[in-house]
Amino acid sequence: MTEDLKNEDIIETEIENQETSDNKDEQLEEDTIINEIDDNLEKIKQLEKQVDEMKDLAQRTQAEFMNYKRRVAKEKQDLTTFANEKIVTELLAVLDNFQRALDSEKENTTGFYQGVDMIKKQLEDVLNKNGLEEIECLNEPFDPNYHHAVMQVEGDEPDKVLEILQKGYKLKEKVIRPAMVKVSK
């Protein structure tokens, strides 16, 4: 019987050792799981930070692209607007010659006069459709941005445009030829 008791004690000790071992294994498993959870939480935080950075980068890139598109559209519009500037400037001399031809004709009822006047008006219409506008300046204050003073005479009001010697023109708000004017002193 002592031997049975000894065996029982051994078995009990083994069971206790097994339980202790199981408890240690469970504790180790819990610690491992907690460490994995902590690691995963840290990874999640890092990934959330990366997602936020990517969102910010995407938003900034999109804003830069929109600004780029607007800038390119404006440059394209300016290019098409002012691409014709040279030819329009050269056509102004033709328009001036039409006006001189009409001014030199004493009788404005002839068919020739009326034909030349119609051609001049047609040319003006085409140029106006493409953004050309005459600078109105008669009896206006002198402005060096729009006027080129070639004569000064005594007048009632100083710096007032008294006579237009050559018309001035703007192409889409840009002065392409200032008006040559006579100004009062």
Can you describe what's shown?
- The strands form two sheets. A three-stranded antiparallel β-sheet has the order 1-4-5. It has a three-stranded mixed β-sheet with strand order 2-6-3, with no helix packed on it.
- It has three domains: 1-82; 84-130; 133-185, Nucleotide Exchange Factor Grpe, Chain A, domain 2.
- A hairpin with a 2-residue loop joins β4 and β5 (174-177).
- The termini are far apart.
- α2 runs antiparallel to α3.
- The protein is rod-shaped, with a radius of gyration of 46 Å.
- The chain has helices at 2-83, 85-104, 111-129, and strands at 132-134, 147-153, 161-166, 169-171, 174-177, 179-184.
- The longest helix has 82 residues, at 2-83.
- With 185 residues, it is an alpha+beta fold.
Brief synopsis:
The protein has helices spanning 2-83, 85-104, 111-129; strands at residues 132-134, 147-153, 161-166, 169-171, 174-177, 179-184.
Q: What keywords describe this structure?
A:
single chain; 185 residues; alpha+beta; Nucleotide Exchange Factor Grpe, Chain A, domain 2; 3 domains; 3-stranded antiparallel beta sheet; 3-stranded mixed beta sheet; 3 helices; 6 strands; 16% strand; GrpE
